[in-house]
Amino acid sequence: MNYTLTQIPERTAKPRHSGFTMVMDKGLSIRQAEDLLSTSADYIDIIKLGWATSFVTPNLQEKLDVYAAAGIPVYFGGTLFEAFVVRKQFDDYRRLLDKYKMTYAEVSDGSIEMDPDDKCEYIRQLATQVTVLSEVGSKDEAKIIPPYKWIKLMQAELQAGAWKVIGEAREGGNVGLFRSSGEVRQGLVEEILTQVPFESIIWEAPQKAQQVWFVKLLGANVNLGNIAPHEVIPLETIRLGLRGDTFTHFLNQSEL
Amino acid sequence: MNYTLTQIPERTAKPRHSGFTMVMDKGLSIRQAEDLLSTSADYIDIIKLGWATSFVTPNLQEKLDVYAAAGIPVYFGGTLFEAFVVRKQFDDYRRLLDKYKMTYAEVSDGSIEMDPDDKCEYIRQLATQVTVLSEVGSKDEAKIIPPYKWIKLMQAELQAGAWKVIGEAREGGNVGLFRSSGEVRQGLVEEILTQVPFESIIWEAPQKAQQVWFVKLLGANVNLGNIAPHEVIPLETIRLGLRGDTFTHFLNQSEL
Amino acid sequence: MNYTLTQIPERTAKPRHSGFTMVMDKGLSIRQAEDLLSTSADYIDIIKLGWATSFVTPNLQEKLDVYAAAGIPVYFGGTLFEAFVVRKQFDDYRRLLDKYKMTYAEVSDGSIEMDPDDKCEYIRQLATQVTVLSEVGSKDEAKIIPPYKWIKLMQAELQAGAWKVIGEAREGGNVGLFRSSGEVRQGLVEEILTQVPFESIIWEAPQKAQQVWFVKLLGANVNLGNIAPHEVIPLETIRLGLRGDTFTHFLNQSEL
């Protein structure tokens, strides 16, 4: 840190299991990736190459190398897994992970119908090869999953071998955990937290108000995902109580 | 492509007449322009220097050189044409196009009142010098043009020598083809398509939901414009059915 | 300028007291800062390192050097001042300004309660060390300050030694001068202008419609702040009547 302030909440250090920030790269150039790392490498725990953008980006291997050199793991968005599965090319997907020496992979069913048992079987198989993140929630805003089912799915997927489960929100933050307005489904989040350990969940929260809501509820070291590259520094200040939105949250109230 | 997936819609190749992507540069630096090309050159068919931003950007010639080296044509936004015309400096505009060796130009009347015959005359004159794109639609959200008139104007402008006609939406996607909420004027688009050839139209569609709507209606190879630099890769995945929004659109339904 | 157009409003030149553009840097990398300067240095009068982002950016000294080399002053967002004050570390803040050789500082009370006399005392003290910008308005959208009080505070703060006063809007443009929808509190602005000199105020106006509103009311040379880096070129065209929104505003109407 560039200077000293009292009453700054303590942040976890890498490798983080809580206080984790997952960033979405949806097509950065090599220089843009380097720029991101130059300001934010310490605050980024993992990078997702959004949905199937890796199919069309010409700089894939070079970008993987840039992130690897910074010690930050990368994974392909779950939509890519689904794109292979829906085409009955799951074995090709496994070979793809090997080809690019991926150490993480996401299993999701945001765009397709998948039997929960089948999903868990994919998790089990991939967990022999990589660290698995599994995602719960549909990308279809009309498809509302009730809280008890979120919990059941998350528990089963962790049980099947997922390292962490991700709560779906998309790049926009307007489905899954959130209403189409971006408003948090507070009851859903609170009910999930009664049954699933805090540190096992990554909450996709691309909008500032969503990040603020989670930091206020769960503290500086909540796991957040789908953070845009240019929002990593702002998010870090929200976690530390150094932006207006959380400014007084971590202060010793008796001293104010 | 970095790997192989079945059932990916076929895309047209450059020089494209359909499946065309027009990107808006509203003041990129040289390095940012290079970054854009490094990830997206294959997917960009033409670049518009938004409205009259070319007046105030200090790097104009250098940027034109960067785009030229990538083989991507560039044109000045129609507002610049209008700025010259409204000042009775049309001859200066023609000299400007020569000075910068521009091979494309836009004729529009989004910010001024112009008689349709006069507009066609400008198209005719400029078509002797460059390839002309003409734009239909007002930037004034209160000025609603009925569908039959859109069609009449588009047909007359193509007849006068425009290579393609552009449907107005602005950078924001909230006028012309769209309501102020960004919602597509579906009846307008569908009526236009009954009379004007699909490949003669470029639809300005800066918002993701608008791009998705057009790809679902007209397929992977619809012509789209006013795409922000960082949305070219995402748009390409939408065209290919590799983002949630169009994920099942191109799949063989009987195999699902 | 790259070419000549008649009827372009005259812009002030640096060092500007009106027609001033303040840009918000909320975590740019060194290269991104260089990119910004390469296109926009002539149009940027001062750069704010947004709120307390300077706490977590690893490139602080280097970035200050880049901006200094371009002759553009920089200051820390007011939230940083407040973070020190609320922790009773005001002396540390003064040392921090010296350590980084800052020549400007902001005094604000957007996130904390502060007695107006105390705020003026901070202004007086800091004015012996740096040029002071003071900000009026709360970051809390529920806290509405009536116009007469804005005026009283602005006058007192200028009297205490503030070089200019800033009207609060945040990065989003949805508090202070604006309703949560982003709409300008027109009556507030107009009433302030009856009592506080035009050139003593910097209006935070991050949204395009807000910038347009101020340029239409106060002309090309209104002082505007919280401009995002990629909006500096677009703003300059709005000031010059070269974007649709202000296109006819500066034209000699009798010639149209």
UniProtKB/TrEMBL annotation, chains A, B, C:
SUPFAM superfamilies: (2r)-phospho-3-sulfolactate synthase ComA (SSF102110). It comes from the Bacteria. It holds the Pfam family ComA. Coiled coil: none annotated. InterPro entries: Aldolase_TIM, ComA_synth, ComA_synth_sf. Belongs to the phosphosulfolactate synthase family. This is Phosphosulfolactate synthase.
